[in-house]
Write a structure and sequence with these properties.
nine-stranded antiparallel beta sheet, Beta-galactosidase, Chain A, domain 5, mainly beta, 2 helices, 256 residues, eight-stranded antiparallel beta sheet
């Protein structure tokens, strides 16, 4: 029996969509950035999305196998279950705050016919991370600020900055927020209030959103990982009818 959602190949990753509701779809770009010596040395370096994906005929399973990096997605009735396996084949150990940043988004900004306008959230008021007191909107003085995991603040603060000013090299586009993230979940409600989408990882470093693609960037914390070692990290995509509370309940079901 097929699930309510199906997976298909997308130019930068995979597309997850409802089998019965044309208004319900989103895209996972895997992956866009590295942070803090993950994969490549550097505070902030570019990732890659040029991976080969295999999707089964039913649209139930999508697998990307990049030798040192493997991601499997299994469609569910409310999104997709993710399993990410990484091997450190680089020439250096990855520190505890090493992270990679995938991008969950409503589609390419220059292709309106392929873009989900229900999830654009132009006013920045419908996208949330889990803060100290519950779900917190990314809206504020600078909605692209980055919300680091409160449990990793000591390691982040002790990182030796590359910029002589003492700021992170990505600080100009992603200033560090005073509002920390408290769990690996980002959620967006649709403009009409009917739907919700989200991304979650059991190990995360930061939550940040609203680049030109109207993205949600929830980084996967992949460190510490010594040279030659590997690890597997669980994640979830959410796409369903409901509110931000509906999505948070699904996250709590899946990760607690």
């Amino acid at each position: 029996m097929s699930t309510a959602l199906e997976l298909s190949r997308w130019e930068r990753g995979i597309r997850v969509a409802s089998r019965s509701d044309a208004a319900l779809f989103a895209y996972l770009w895997f992956y866009e950035w590295h942070l803090f010596d993950a994969v490549a040395r550097g505070e902030h370096t570019a990732g890659s999305w040029n991976w080969d994906w295999d999707v089964d005929e039913s649209g139930s399973v999508a697998v990307m196998d990049g030798d040192w990096l493997r991601l499997r997605a299994d469609a569910t009735d409310d999104g997709a279950a993710l399993s990410l396996t990484l091997a450190n084949t680089s020439d250096h150990d990855w520190p505890s705050i090493a992270a990679i940043i995938p991008c969950l988004n409503p589609g390419h900004p220059e292709r309106p016919m392929e873009r989900n306008s229900l999830f654009l959230d132009e006013a920045h008021t419908l996208t949330y991370f889990l803060g100290e007191n519950g779900l917190d909107s990314i809206a504020g003085a600078f909605p692209r600020e980055i919300h680091f995991d409160h449990a990793r603040q000591a390691d982040i603060a002790s990182w030796e900055k590359e910029d002589e000013s003492g700021a992170f090299v990505f600080g100009g586009k992603w200033p560090t927020s005073e509002r920390d993230a408290y769990a690996g979940i980002m959620i967006r409600e649709s403009c009409d209030g009917r739907y919700v989408m989200g991304i979650a990882w059991e190990s995360f470093l930061s939550a940040q959103g609203h680049n030109p693609w109207n993205c949600m960037h929830l980084s996967v914390r992949v460190g510490p990982l010594a040279r030659g070692e590997s690890r597997t990290i669980r994640g979830r995509l959410y796409l369903m009818e409901g509110s931000k509370e509906t999505c948070l309940q699904a996250f709590e079901r899946d990760f607690t």
